[in-house]
What does this fold into?
Amino acid sequence: HEGSSDSVGAMAAAAGSSFASCWSGIDRLLLCSSEAAGKRRGCMPNGGSSFGQPLDPSTGSRMSAEVSCEPSTSGATQTSRLEEEVDPFYAWPSAAELEQVRALRVLLSPGEAVELEAAPEDIRHDLMLCRFLRGHGHEASKALPFLRSHLQYRREHAGVLARVRAKLSDDMEDFNESVFSSQFGHIQDLFKMLQLPARCGTNDGMSLSLLPIGIFRLQDVSSVDDRQMVEWFVSMVEMRSLSLHNQSVREKRMAKVVEVRDCQGFAWSSFFASTAVIRQLKKIMDVAKQYPEVLGAMQLFNLEPGLRSIALLRRVLPKELQAKMIFSDRGDWPSILEVRRGLCPEAVHRWSVHMERFRSGAQWQPVTRDRPQVVRTVRVIAGSVVCWLFRGACESNVASMKVALRFLADACPGQVPSMAEVRRPELLALRSGTDSCVLRQGSWTATQDGTVLLEAELEGVGQVSVLATVALEGGAAGVGPDASASALTAAAVKAALAAPPPRALPVATTASILGPDALFFVAGVVCALLAMAVGRYLLGRG
It folds into this structure.
């Protein structure tokens, strides 16, 4: 049910782009704790955004307003006039929809009406009933069976839902999975999910749920008790309902979550080998479809370029699903950033820092065909001097690395950020048997607030060890809650230059003898068939 909510992400996304397309709405099996610290560049002084401006009741459009784009500490100010049409994905319920909502309430039996009225505000609210309408053909008669199913679901899980609500504040807006760490911490630790609040999530001001599917193990997921997995999911999706409701009411638009999957390094064959995970997914789906219309978009990035399965998927997916899908090949930053539902510059930085936390801690990072990309970022303000350094050592006979330095400029809320190449991509040839490593380094002065991104990517085959870093000159603190993770002192530069390359690199592995593209193709064919099988059910629910 592609319009449904939270946490099936670990499983549905683990199936790759195809399964995620089929079940993208239930693709949130692991929403991690939101990081509430720090405002996104360009946010309004109260931490909100220009989307909080009132709607013109006659047109449904956002009323134009002078919006101050504060660059925080840089001292510069900028004012831009935003005159935005409401995105249909997020539009506040119209007068016609509210008429249908009233009709939907009338169709309930007296007992069901009492049950609905006794539910929490975010469940009984007109907005929630409008989600049911939009997810089921915009007709009260079609939405009625699903609303009744939701009421039955609340009866069956009354105990779990009561415990969840007891731990949540009525005004919460930032999703915070840590609330349930004492009960579900062992499950949360499996997935390494990054959950970002709306102020530093997507370019259009929606919260973001990111799962690096290449660094968790499906066999660990299958070891979790089915009952515990379902209870965890119920807890997560109920919290999501409350947080989205509060954001929606504040901004007067139907807030949703944008799901993002980092596909680098995932062995696609592992999903099909895990019948336990597929069994759990089926159980989760029954819960997920109780919460329609919470998905704003599904972005799959770091895909292997040229995958046949993606082309196949685009041909067979219904237009309603295609409208919510964003496919981004590895290194295709414009398709990741320069779209309204894409990652904002701060979100890119937080993703990079998040991935750093799961490295071994060694200075040198192995780069192979399975994991060919290294990314380092730092947040900057206008006038900051950024230092960057790249060293590469080849263990195979020969290898090539493409190195580039880019700047992602912050934008006002609702606007698409711009990207510029600080240093054009350079293809470096690395050979084994040499005494010295290939070295590139430099500095650059930022002219705007934003994120500086250093990227190194293996071209073709080979095994390389990479030492890469980018940070503010002289160890000055970076911008945002993760600033300390990327401060570069003079001593650190000297140490990076002097660090000897590893004596041996781990042997490169592949998902199977078929190779990653063949596995993608097989997965695409199988899941495309699934997509068509459930297409009739999904149509009109997105």
